[in-house]
C-alpha cells in the first residue's frame, strides 16, 4: 500500500465513525458552582459550631453547675460573648473562697494553753493566790457550784493567749478560788497580763479588768500607785472590790474579792476577807510579777 492508498483508507474509516456530540460548557460550569456552594456551607457550619462551643465553655467556666450567676454576668439577658470574656477573671482581693483560720501559738487549738510553760504560769498564779489567803479561810479544791454553776469547779486557773502586738505575744494568767469560812462562801481572783498589750496609765488611770465599775481610790504601797475600786450596792457584777497595779515593765496585776459567789446558791461570808489596803498590797506583791 502506497501513501495514496493509505490516505483513502483512513478517510473511509473516519466517514464510517459517528460524529461526537458538540462541546457545551454549561454542565461543567453548573457542577463547579454546586461544588463551591457545598464548600461554603461546610465552612459556615464549622465556624458556627466552634462559636457555640466557645460560648458554652465560657459560660461553664463562669457559672459552675448549681452556683448561680457569676458577679457582673446577666445570663438571662444574654450578654454578648465579649462581656463573658471580660468577666472570666477577678482580682484575688475581691473573690476568695478560702476561710482564714485563726493562728494559735504553741500548737494550741484555741486561746487556752493546756500544757507547757504558759499553762504552768497560770498554775503559778493559782498557787500564789491560795498562799495569800488570810488565816481563818479555806480554799477547798473539791467544791463544786450550785445554781447556775451547778457542778462547775470552784477552783480554777487558766492561761489565755490575748494577741500578738508588734511581734510580742501577750498572755493573761488567771486563777479563781472559793473562800470558805463556816457556812459562808466568798470569792478571790487574780489576773496577770504580760507586757506588750494596749492600754496605758497607772493607779486609777489604768484600764479596768472586771466589770462592775465603782469608785476608784489610789492607795500607795511602798510608793507604788495602786488602784482600788469599790463597787456600790446595785452596781456590782461579780466582785465587791478589786485592786490593780502596773509594774514598771508593763505587767498588769488585778486582784478581786467578793463576800459571796455569784451565780450560786451558797450563803455569803460575813464580810470581805481583805481590807482595801490589804487588797492593794496584794496586787502590788512581787509574787504575781511572773518572770
UniProtKB/TrEMBL annotation:
Superkingdom per UniProt: Bacteria
Amino acid composition bias (Basic and acidic residues), ranges on this chain: 1-10
Keywords in alphabetical order: Membrane, Transmembrane, Transmembrane helix
Biased composition (Polar residues): 80-111
Residue ranges, annotated region (Disordered): 1-30, 78-116
Transmembrane segments annotated in the record for this chain: 41-63
Protein name per UniProt: Uncharacterized protein
Organism listed in the record: Actinophytocola gossypii
